[in-house]
Amino acid sequence: MRIVFATGNKDKMKEIRRILGDLDAEILSMKEAGVFEDVVEDGTTFSENAAIKASAIYKLLEEKDPEAAKETVVLADDSGLEVDFLGGEPGIYSARYLGKDTPYTEKNRIIIERLKDAEGEERSARFVCAIAACLPGGKMLGTLGKMEGRIGYEIAGENGFGYDPIFFLPEYGKTSAEISADEKNAISHRGKALREMEKLLREAFEDGNK
Which candidate, 170, 19, 151, 16, places its Cα nearest to that of 81? Predict the structure, then answer.
């Protein structure tokens, strides 16, 4: 069995391989699997977008090689940051927020600026990650993980990516870009969703081998 994850993000693939490494499966990015098409994610929730992406990439792989597709599971995620003070923004538009080509250093600066009048719990926020799996035959599985925190008062840390440098974790006294990769994987939205998906995939693989 091989797992194709519908992303070309190298940082995300590192997390995925680290967390799903115990599965007896080859783990590839969609580009490593020979798929380069962009999928239009027009759902209204993280879960809908993840399912749309997983299903679309699976169909493309099936068209390319029907036999290989019988031994392939496609995983896709949709994740983002929800800031309560901003009414849940950027939400499902996290990657495109303030413009798709706007660097995260600028996005992070602007979010901190927009929260200049927010204090304490008013700065509450969370990372959300939905993961969908499209199995051979079209069966879909889904999981959802969240990591609660606050928007920090300044950009800090270089270990993460995206909005990590402004996502403050009170229990650590640091942003999610300041803690180690292992610490982050243990508590992150993606880590939670991936570990739950690992359980579902193990069950699916076991059922398929009976």
Answer: 151
Helix axes 10-20, 189-208, angle to 10 degrees: 50
Size (the chain), residues: 210
Domain of 66 in residue numbering reads as 2-208
Q: Are 108 and 166 in contact (CB under 8 A)?
A: yes
Neighbours of 130 (CB within 10 A): 25
Q: Convert the pLDDT of each residue in 126-176 to its tens digit.
A: 999 999 999 998 899 999 999 999 999 999 999 888 999 999 999 999 999
What's the CATH number where 142 sits?
Answer: 3.90.950.10
Longest C-alpha distance within the chain, in Å?
A: 59
Q: Are strands 167-169 and 174-175 parallel, antiparallel or unpaired?
A: antiparallel
- Report pLDDT for 173: 97
Straight-line distance from the first to the last Cα atom of the chain, in angstroms, rounded to the nearest whole number? 15
**78 catalytically annotated:** yes
- Is 204's pLDDT higher than 90? no
Residue in 24, 65, 77, 78 annotated catalytic: 78
CB 149 within 8 A of CB 168: yes
State how many domains the chain has.
1
3-class DSSP state of 174: strand
Q: For 76-92, what is each residue's pLDDT tens digit?
A: 999 999 999 999 999 99
Task: In whole angstroms, give the CA distance from residue 169 to residue 178.
Answer: 10
